[in-house]
Amino acid sequence: MKAETIAKDLLKIHAVFFRPDEPFTWASGIKSPVYCDNRLTLTAPEVRNDVENSLAELVKEYYPDAEVLMGTSTAGIAHAAIVGHLLALPMGYVRSGAKDHGRQNQIEGRLLPGQKVVVVEDLISTGGSVIEVVNVLREAGANVLGVVSIFTYGMQKGLERLAEAGVENHSLCSFDVIARVAAEERYIRPEDVRRLLQFRDHPADESWIGAQA
Fold first, then answer.
1. How far is CA 115 from the centre of its chain?
2. Cβ-based neighbours of 199, under 8 Å, separated by 6 or more
3. What is the DSSP string of 135-194?
4. pLDDT tens across 13-51, in order?
5. To the nearest 10°, the Cα dihedral for 94, 68, 36, 45?
6. What is the DSSP letter of 75?
7. Tens digit of pLDDT for each residue in 191-210?
8. In sequence order, which residues have a C-beta less than 8 Å from that of residue 212 and are 6 or more positions away?
């Protein structure tokens, strides 16, 4: 499915929407004109169908040898389960940390050393979270083929981190595409696209806030 279709889906259900004049604040303190909540795709059946089938197509296209899908905790878990069902593949997920009780697992689900794994993530910004998941899987002996995700910001820091860690990612939709579609569909003004890309390229530089387009 084309990235433009996924962009329209995400915008329609407000899973991704823009507020360039009243930015959101990330946990890191960075001001962002974009808010992403791809969990909302799960409560919109038509969009969910587009997203999950498209993620399944990414796995089939780029990782046909995949033996196991592993979701990131918590946002990637449901997507990994649905895509695993569509592809008849086992799935599990990686916790943000090992449990402090029971078997003290960090990886939930059966994973054998050497198995070929694809990680399922909802969105990628700086890449830190998904790289941590990949490292946990590698330490457990998995052969991590790569990552499939719904949305990527395409931030330089994230691209560099993924490259340094040897992690390949394929996303259904990129920041560039969704900014363009948002302008075409009149969620934002066409002149705001430049400001959005300025944020994407230099997220610590807040000069785009209140800037004249």
1. 23
2. 32, 33, 34, 208
3. HHHHHTT-EEEEEEEEEE---HHHHHHHHHHT--EEEEEEHHHHHHHHHHTTSS-GGGHH
4. 999 988 888 899 987 788 899 989 999 999 999 999 999
5. -120
6. T
7. 999 999 999 999 888 888 87
8. none
Helix (H) or strand (E) run with residue 31 in it: strand 31-32
Q: Does pTM surpass 0.85?
A: yes
Q: Which of 154, 86, 157, 96 is nearest to 124 (CA)?
A: 154
Beta-bridge partner residues of 117: 68, 144
Q: Which two tokens stand for residue 8?
A: 């329209």
Scan for tokens 């981190």, then name that residue.
161
Which 3 state secondary structure label does DSSP give 47?
A: helix
